[in-house]
Amino acid sequence: MGKIKISGAEAVIRCLLAEGVDLVYGYPGGAIMPVYDELYKFQDQLHHVLVRHEQGATHAAQGYARATGKVGIAIATSGPGATNLVTGIADAQIDSTPMVCITGQVGKHLLGSDAFQETDIIGISTPVTKWNYQITEASEIPEIIAKAFYIARSGRPGPVLIDITKNAQFDELEFSYEKCTSIRSYVPVPKLKLDQVAAAAELINTAKKPFIVFGQGIILGQAEAEFKALVEKSGIPAAWTILGLSALPTDHPLNVGMLGMHGNYGPNLLTNECDVLIAFGMRFDDRVTGDLKTYAKQAKVIHFEIDPSEIDKNVKTEVAVLGDVKEALTALLPLIDQKSHESWHNEFKEKQKIEFESVIKEELNPTNDKGISMGETIEMINKHSKGDAIMVSDVGQHQMFACRYAKFNSTKSNITSGGLGTMGFALPAAIGAKMGRPDREVVAIIGDGGFQMTIQELGTIFQTKVPVKIVILNNEFLGMVRQWQQLFFDNRYASTKMINPNFVAIAEGYHIKAKKVTKREDLDAAVAEMMASKDSYFLEVMVEKENNVFPMIPTGASVSDIRLS
Amino acid sequence: MEDKIFTISVYSENNVGLLNRISGIFLKRHINILSLNVSESEIENVSRFIIVVSTTEKWVQNIVGQIEKQIEVIKAFYHTDEETIFLENALFKIASNLLFDEKQIQNIIKDSQSTIVTVSRDFFVISKSGRRSEIEELYEKFKPFGIMQFVRSGRISVSKEKMEISTLLESFK
């Protein structure tokens, strides 16, 4: 590309276009106005979605990124605009979501003067970004934005924040754009060592009770097919973290379910009975492992991972295979013996039977008269989506029910806030997911608490007409905290009871089709109507007030101490 | 695992904000930095951080992993005291009249192998390089006479083993 003389603000837009961006989320304000002026001029090439709060821009960008695998973009002004991004940035950091945030900043000559809407967003965002940078000269824009995209999407992805002073947006530069392909101090993907792969294969082939645990790394590494081939050839039971969910179809015979605090009975218990534990693209979060002192101590651990700092961070490994997971799986597959591990697999089936009898049966087909259960609502969505929808869940009990009971046929279908546990995530994330994948049905599952944290994004749905389906599981409680209060704080329900407004009226105020279901016999037809709707649809389901999520591993307990009630 | 003194060496690009990013890694883990020194390194445009902490080996491994993960960090290492050559530097500002009134002072200076940096009508300044204990010893000796100002630098150190940053930088090209 030849050099042309343009403003910094125009350069920002041309950089985004050069990176293949056609959709950004944001909210205008004083210090970012030159960029918005260019967004106006380029609106036929770059679609800007006006959210109702900057946090919504980050979650929408995350939803877009998680559904498509591409980098999500959020734009905000300085000061409060920038600080409102922080929750979403922290969420993207802990869940390894590629995102580039662009913030306006006061002019260079005003930096450090406590100018109007000046805030040190570089200082504030440093601990929660993969990288951040303040641009104070227009000429820096192309190189820095190129670096931002490269860093956000390469290796273990993450959020990058670029703060641009207002003078740099106004000033002119000689523009040319070159994509960044390397940074001398940054090794995004460690080189795969074949001897490590061979050592892993040897352990896997000689294992009597091998067990695979997989996380989002499979999805981020686009290694779903290779992973499925490995699972099938090796015959090893495989369980997922909630971010790994949908990397392997939920009805796959070797998919034994969910790990962790509210995961399935078998995978948790048998973690402490396997002889070789093979982890793919997961980080042994405390919600997965419970007490580390009693986690898989009998097992030899193999860890396939792209981020060297995750090796031995929480769980000591016997063999660490660093590198790109797709490449590693491709090298591993031919070395693996074809096996079935039938009797070992039967142990999972037996545990599954126990869990079904004591938990799942009643959850999916309640015999009590306390109302509709969250589990049966998810099951009803499964019935109508046939496992083909993208499900975006918020944080709390409904999230655990959604992850436990949702059926998925294809990858990138489960979008939820895992590491940070951000209430308010789902509504804006569903907007981003649907805009990224207009060909797929997107259903947001949200509690009555989380919904009210970003409820204003109904305005974004109204304005853009994005046809997302919103299901509120309303128990008139902050349910997960209430469950803990019941179990561990002697039923003292401190500030968890919610007196809620008329949600249907609110949705209708935004001209979104809305319905409320209170009786079990109306659920099927309501979900059917929602799924058939060509437009956005709001469905409020009044669910059992004091239902608890089980199984459960209490905080700090061992995976072996998983409780069924 | 018990706490030990570790010296963390970081080779990095010389960029605004990196110090904040690195110190944040300690802050997040509630670990106090005992001393910090940032300077140029043997390679042009490459900075070197020397950070001293008292913590467990498991934590120092974790911290070095997190530091190395930062985009602008080229490489980070950690060493125990046995694995490095290290020292600190201290300046003592002392009233000039003591130099003549208290003859002992001259002997203290001579015995401690410290050097006089400057002498003026009102004060003189002594510089002492060495281990922390040697500096503290000298401090104790001057203390009875009155010290006008005292300052000690962070630890600087070089490792006994090779670090081969230049080769590493070559391989990035």
From TrEMBL, chain A:
Task: Give residue ranges for domain Thiamine pyrophosphate enzyme TPP-binding.
Answer: 394-541
Q: In which pathway does it act?
A: Amino-acid biosynthesis; L-isoleucine biosynthesis; L-isoleucine from 2-oxobutanoate: step 1/4; Amino-acid biosynthesis; L-valine biosynthesis; L-valine from pyruvate: step 1/4
Cofactors needed by this protein, per the record, are: thiamine diphosphate; Mg(2+)
Name the keywords, alphabetized: Amino-acid biosynthesis, Branched-chain amino acid biosynthesis, FAD, Flavoprotein, Magnesium, Metal-binding, Thiamine pyrophosphate, Transferase
Classify the source by domain of life.
Answer: Bacteria
Cell division: is it a keyword of this entry? no
Paste the cofactor note.
Answer: Binds 1 thiamine pyrophosphate per subunit. Binds 1 Mg(2+) ion per subunit.
The GO biological-process annotations, alphabetized, read as: isoleucine biosynthetic process; L-valine biosynthetic process
The EC number(s) given in the record are 2.2.1.6
- The Thiamine pyrophosphate enzyme central domain extends over 197-332
Question: Can you supply one Gene Ontology CC term for this chain's record?
Answer: acetolactate synthase complex
Q: Which reaction does it catalyse?
A: 2 pyruvate + H(+) = (2S)-2-acetolactate + CO2
Q: Name one GO molecular function term.
A: magnesium ion binding
Gene3D superfamilies, A to Z: 3.40.50.970, TPP-binding domain
A Pfam family of the record is TPP_enzyme_C
Q: Which residues form the Thiamine pyrophosphate enzyme N-terminal TPP-binding domain?
A: 7-122
- Sequence similarity: Belongs to the TPP enzyme family.
Name of the protein in its database record: Acetolactate synthase
**Which gene holds the coding sequence for this protein?**
ilvB
UniProtKB/TrEMBL annotation, chain B:
InterPro entries xref list: Acetalactate_synth_ssu, Acetolactate_synth/TF_NikR_C, Acetolactate_synth_ssu_C, ACT-like_dom_sf, ACT_dom, AHAS_ACT, AHAS_small-like_ACT
Q: Which reaction does it catalyse?
A: 2 pyruvate + H(+) = (2S)-2-acetolactate + CO2
Q: Which pathway does UniProt place it in?
A: Amino-acid biosynthesis; L-isoleucine biosynthesis; L-isoleucine from 2-oxobutanoate: step 1/4; Amino-acid biosynthesis; L-valine biosynthesis; L-valine from pyruvate: step 1/4
One Gene Ontology cellular component term attached to this UniProt record is: cytosol
Gene Ontology molecular function, alphabetical: acetolactate synthase activity; acetolactate synthase regulator activity
Keywords in alphabetical order: Amino-acid biosynthesis, Branched-chain amino acid biosynthesis, Transferase
Q: Sorted alphabetically, which CDD domains does this protein's record hold?
A: ACT_AHAS
What subunit structure does UniProt give? Dimer of large and small chains.
Q: Tell me what this protein is called.
A: Acetolactate synthase small subunit
The organism named in the record is Flavobacterium geliluteum
State the gene name recorded for this protein. Answer: ilvN
